[in-house]
Design goal:
globular
Length: about 110
Amino acid sequence: HTYEFLSQIPWTRDLAAVPEIAYAHHERVNGTGYPRRLTQREIPVQSRIMAIADVFDALTAQDRPYKAALPLGRSLALLEEDASRGHLDADLFDIFLKAKVYERTVKANA
């Protein structure tokens, strides 16, 4: 539904790929994701980045009434497991860690 909705928006040339990027962010680099079971080569790099951010947010978000946020260390460990299993792009996850992107949303001592 996201793809169909976003495809209706008259994006500028710079943003024309937004529907495809959003559409592919649940794909997994080993081909086990959805909705199209794409492999790493077929998944836009922006979608692979978005997948890491999406999973991180799902694990650490404190505003979800249906589940408690996980501590930062546990969340990063789970992301690392996902990367090692081929669910997330391991190279991009390494950049996520080295750049400490997580510090923008979660305190390091959480």
